[in-house]
């Protein structure tokens, strides 16, 4: 699962935490290895990964809720919201499992948002988006994330749909769409993914602020919890799940 940029920026900004870099690198390599192996094996192994991550995120969600919400009714409501939020995202991931390449591109897009936002924010700085929620997030970082994911999706269109498939080029020409139209759609998709992923990051940061904690958990050395790593991806999958459900209702 992709890592959010907030923790990266925070660790880099605090000189005393530079020694955590080897631990973070090893943890990241393990995460990539586990996720890559699950994608390679597919089937119930990949579904098992989705379920395990979903349960882990839900557990961290509940822990945050118990820390900032004292009313029993409020806790119950927040837990139901978390269950719907995480379950919808996991269900959408399983639905996309039928087209694993597309799911990989989506995961790569969320990672591109994080990487683009991190480097653009560090390079250009500038005004903060919401200092009280996430002090490290800047508007320049958001723009960098949009550019990164849009470039990735545009490259996907060029390579997978046109440059390497002459048949699709001919079909697109007959349908009157063509490469430029598909690239425009890819750029729009990149914009939406970047905004939704960053919104998911902000939402989790807001929950942590209310709970008075830095990380959602301690499962991943140097990285925090599963929710810290998957916040943006879960938000994107949740929105896609809502769109799929709405489309199913309209069609029926």
Q: What is the number of helical segments per DSSP (H or I, 4+ residues)?
A: 9
| Tally of discrete structural domains | 1
Structural class: mainly alpha
The gross shape turns out to be: globular
The largest sheet, given as strand count, sense and whether it forms a barrel, is: none
Approximately what portion of the residues adopt beta-strand conformation?
A: under 5%
Helical amount among residues, as a percent range?
Answer: over 70%
Report the count of strand segments. Answer: 0
What's the end-to-end separation, in Å? 34 Å
**What is the CA-based Rg, rounded?**
19 Å
What series of H and E elements makes up the topology? HHHHHHHHH
- Mean pLDDT equals 84
Poorly predicted regions are 1-18
Describe this structure as you would to a colleague.
This protein has one domain. The protein has 252 residues and is mainly α. 80% of the residues lie in helices and 0% in strands. The longest helix is centred in the last third of the chain and has 34 residues, at 178-211. It is built from 9 helices and no strands. The protein has helices at 5-13, 21-41, 43-68, 72-96, 100-124, 139-163, 166-175, 178-211, 226-251.
